[in-house]
């Protein structure tokens, strides 16, 4: 390739992330990590992400098949689901314990209780110990034991074996011994950085740095080694300077020159193509914001607006819902109107039909209306 342009970067990001749909296991192997979010509008973020990458995927398939997969709820650069190999790179977690020294005895007691039961619902633990309440991260009140179970899960002492009505069910967990030599730690960190790059590339310098630094949540024991890992990544990755900005992607890849097919895709707010808002604005020339927590009167796109990708352009957004079994859709466009290209409308209707199957609603209700 003679000269890399924003078109190459944009098309490369789409082609490498929106790969040909495959099995759920293989899709996870390609992604390494899928961010989770509990909001259903019209489905959870993890399901909206996987539906583009898994053959015949239906909302809730990940939760239904979780116990049969080598996939684990854990913290990576965000909370979500990681493959077994990725989890093995992160654990055992060190660094400061996410509880006070005074609670160390309680942690040991809880661990013994969970081990004896096999797996537990937080309610069982709460009923057994009744330790009172504490203020959680969001300012609400939750049981102290539930909060401690979450902290023990993060530390790697517990694992989530399944969910019941959305509630985590825990069991004990044992990880392999931590690497003792510097070379092994560096190899693990480099592998974790590669997971980040494989998922979100091509990345501008600032975004690459942000994501590598967010690995402090995955490996708090190695926070001090993240900056050297970032510098090693810059040396081994492919790089091009476009409009005064350095961009990085896996060295073995060639960025595509064509715009792909006529497909329309509605992407989750946390989809790999969308997640990096800095990159999004640089590649598509407009600012996308997640507005679920924005006051209603200040929203510009909608509660859970899904970026609308057509060919290699994000041309607007859609808001989807299911009310009384009826599938509804409304759209907004950057150019204030949908594309005039005759191929667009059939492609949009096909995407809405796919969404209706994914949600399990009648296909006749999948008819778009413009905002």
In short:
This protein is α+β, with helices and mostly antiparallel strands. It has helices at residues 6-17, 24-31, 45-50, 61-65, 84-90, 104-117, 122-129, 144-155, 182-200, 205-214, 226-236, 277-284, 344-359; strands at residues 33-35, 71-75, 79-83, 133-135, 141-143, 158-164, 167-172, 203-204, 238-242, 245-249, 264-266, 306-310, 313-323, 326-333, 369-370.
Order of strands in the sheet with the most strands? 11-12-13-14-15
Poorly predicted runs are none
Instruction: Encode the helix/strand succession as letters.
Output: HHEHHEEHHHEEHEEHEHHEEEHEEEHE
Query: On the 0-100 scale, what is the average pLDDT?
Result: 91
Shape: globular
Beta-strand residue fraction: 15-25%
DSSP strand tally: 15
Structural class comes to alpha+beta
